[in-house]
Sequence to fold (426 residues):
Amino acid sequence: MSRMARPRKPLLSRERIVATALTLADEEGLPAVSTRRLAAELGVSGPSLYNHFTTKDDILDAVADAVVAQVDLSMFNGDRDWPDALTAWSRSYRAALAAHPNIVPFLAQGPGRRPAGLRMADAVFGAMTAAGWPPAQATRIGALMRYFITGSALASFARGFVNDATTYDSVAYPHLGQAHLLAERQQSVDEGAFETGLRALVDGLALQYAATT
Amino acid sequence: MSRMARPRKPLLSRERIVATALTLADEEGLPAVSTRRLAAELGVSGPSLYNHFTTKDDILDAVADAVVAQVDLSMFNGDRDWPDALTAWSRSYRAALAAHPNIVPFLAQGPGRRPAGLRMADAVFGAMTAAGWPPAQATRIGALMRYFITGSALASFARGFVNDATTYDSVAYPHLGQAHLLAERQQSVDEGAFETGLRALVDGLALQYAATT
DNA sequence: ACCTGAACACCGTTCAAGT
DNA sequence: ACCTGAACACCGTTCAAGT
Fold:
């Protein structure tokens, strides 16, 4: 059964488009990822992309999915108790987003309905129900942790902090010391707020767990 | 002290631009808010807007600030204990965002450095320190609650849920029953996840409070 | 001071045409 | 099947010109 020799291989592939889009977003920001710019980066003309994706949003969805696919899910294999697993997963999730901050604003908008997001939701749901959580609560836990982690990533990584002394009027905002609002402090505030919130969430869920089981 | 009579009053004002932009975003979505479309809505030509704002992002910042300004802060007046106040504020915050879902993706990106956001951060910080929280923790609490609330609003209100049976393959995602992913279920999942997470956060913070004071 | 039209340098997407 | 150039209907923003 022989076939004709394949014609010269295609210039593009979905994988190459996604990888190049992610690199471009990482290096020059989300606004740099236009179809025309991305195509130029790939050495083709703009409309070529439409042979592989139906829309620009489809491309960004795939990029977002590639980022979410980096999240470690191995802590849900049953070796750890649920609070430990949830904590480890949250940190891995946040780290995956921190590695690609410029895609976070897009990623945070969609519900997690792409493959990697569903795989993640499935892993959390499975581990929580296995640990004894009722299914309805297990669903909620997956959602609320995602809210917290993506919200944290958005606020932390998205836009720079304007270090403008006149913005922070001590008369208008008597409780906010200037020191609390300096740009260089922001990252440690974000980090501390994330860890404090993560612990509070897991501890608070543990209270509910003890009350319902 | 008389002055010359004012010449015909300006066609535009910052207030009118912001109000019209918010209405347009509410009714037709964020992409409908282009400078040209907004100007047309206001009965002027596109470039006129630049007499009142330096950039389109400045306009959207002001719109976001107007939404945040709707958040009730009266629960921080000292009548309630801090967990009650934090809970009431969170619900008011979420409700303000739910009233204008289309602006949330923009709003969630910036740190809360506009007037209404700073007023809010100041109120939370003031109430938490007054209740006995150390300043560093009070700052973190304001930030982490914002992460959770904006993250929740983004995921809940931003993009519709695709009700596509083929997306949810029971082989690929064995733990996720189809019923859990139907569009009509989504809103109640979001609501339940928000309330579960809010309670967990406040309960978990109460544990930390008891341990540090 | 405030608004306008014209212009610049872009967009996302469609489509007929090429191979 | 996959890529191209041309085209359409848009963008945000600048700027000289008007009042």
Remarks:
- Residues 1-6, 160-166 of chain B have pLDDT under 50 and may be disordered.
- The longest helix of chain B spans residues 183-212.
- Chain B touches chain A through 63 residues (CB under 8 Å).
- Chain B has eight helices and no strands.
